[in-house]
Design brief:
With 419 residues, this protein is α/β, with parallel strands linked by helices. It has 15 helices and 16 strands. The structure holds zinc ion.
Length: 419
């Protein structure tokens, strides 16, 4: 299967690992470019006239008329497998109800856990598939999805099996990386025994069963949820069993999750609204990707994570949506880009790196995804525009005209006239 993209304005970071610090602003742009894709991989990138025409023999030709071609976006943090919805709770929050009073009225994570327990695998899969179609429309070609709404043996496994079945679907719209987040909250039935006993149960009973289903092990490291010692206990045990590691860290208060992420060798620490200066330095020194989730801060009316500080200290920053039914029911890539540029003061170029190569690094795929280079997967987001600056300029609106996953067009819309 061959696809030849012609008249492309390529804009891509370069390399097989996360880009750190000021270098995040370096984007390679090539106008009048051609991209040849063979069997889902990129076989040639560069000027049309320098291409070996024979190699393109028999290729389907896609003329993009000067439009921008980016690497497909990587949404490296979502909770897109869940039962139920929580719109009432959103309204209570707008009216000023506290977290505790929302829990008492039957909202909060327990509401999603109860609905997820009741949902069949087919019901969960149908809903998550709908989200993946929306993601593809916004140029996402790879997404990370977490379990964490079962918090028991069967439902956690069901969530992970749903993710696996979606990834095995030949007609899927996005590639999916799977994360086990059994340590999302302490389940009701474990209140008496406490967090450490629950973490021990996860280590002994769940991790061996989750092994073939999830690439990552994650934990909600937060005051009064799972604190630093529980986090170390789980992360070190998971690492020994061959899991790669992620942490929800320093979202609500400054606890030191970023420092622990550096200590245990996590691929990413995520949220980081209240990260300490030492946490930033430790993450930079140990190559932990800082995955920032501006939609959540926006939806909760919280301050944004200090993106500029991370970049100035030499960290690699990734951006993701945090799509989930509670704190942030949005998977909007356009709004993520707008918030990053307008409120977190990231440049357009840094934002592109954060949503492509650095997102790929945050899910361990930097050598196969995240840039437009020979040998990588042919995953692209083609914009309506011929200028990358349109991304934040068209505020909160979708700029993506076509999405290509492994050389296959998975989304296409009537193009906007260029003039
Ligand atoms: Zn999360």
């Amino acid at each position: 299967m061959k696809l030849l993209i012609e008249n492309a304005h390529i804009a891509t970071p370069l390399g097989n690992e996360a880009v750190r610090g000021a270098a995040m602003g370096n984007i390679c742009e090539i106008e009048n470019a051609a991209i040849l894709c063979i069997d889902g991989k990129i076989a040639y990138v560069g000027k049309r006239e320098e291409m070996d025409l024979k190699a393109a023999d028999g290729a389907e030709v896609l003329d993009v008329q000067g439009r921008v071609v980016l690497p497909g976006f990587v949404d490296s943090h979502t909770h897109a497998v869940f039962g139920g919805f929580r719109p009432d709770e959103f309204e209570w929050r707008l009216k000023g109800d506290s977290y505790m009073s929302i829990m008492e009225r039957g909202g909060g994570i327990q509401s999603t856990v109860d609905h997820t327990h009741q949902a069949s695998a087919d019901e969960l899969a149908a809903k998550t598939r709908w989200f993946t179609e929306r993601m593809a429309q916004m140029g996402v070609t790879t997404v990370e999805m977490k379990s964490g709404y079962g918090l028991d043996h069967d439902t956690e496994l069901r969530q992970l099996q749903v993710i696996k079945s979606l990834q095995e679907d030949a007609d899927r719209k996005v590639d999916i990386i799977s994360t086990y987040l059994g340590a999302h909250a302490l389940p009701r039935e474990w209140k008496e025994r406490g967090t450490t006993a629950y973490i021990q149960w996860i280590i002994n009973e769940m991790l061996p069963k989750v092994k073939g289903l999830a690439k990552y092990c994650d934990i909600f490291c937060e005051k009064n949820v799972f604190e630093l010692d529980d986090t170390r206990l789980l992360m070190n045990a998971a690492k020994k069993m061959g899991f790669d590691l992620k942490l929800h860290a320093d979202e609500i208060v400054t606890l030191g999750g970023a420092e622990v992420a550096a200590e245990v060798g996590a691929h990413s620490a995520d949220h980081l609204l209240h990260v300490s200066d030492k946490g930033i330095k430790d993450m930079a020194a140990n190559g932990v990707v800082a995955t920032l989730l501006p939609l959540t801060a926006f939806a909760l009316r919280e301050p944004y994570a200090p993106a500029r500080k991370f970049i100035e200290e030499g960290c690699a920053v990734a951006l993701a949506t945090d799509l989930n039914p509670g704190s942030c029911f949005s998977g909007s890539i356009p709004l993520t880009i707008a918030l990053a540029c307008i409120y977190m003061k990231m440049s357009v170029q840094e934002t592109i790196t954060a949503l492509t190569l650095n997102g790929a690094a945050a899910v361990g795929l930097a050598s196969s995804k995240g840039t437009i280079e020979v040998g990588k997967d042919a995953d692209f987001a083609i914009l309506h525009f011929d200028n990358v600056r349109a991304l934040p300029y068209y505020v909160g609106m979708n700029c993506v005209q076509q999405t290509i996953l492994r050389g296959r067009v998975v989304y296409s819309e009537q193009p906007l006239p260029l003039k």
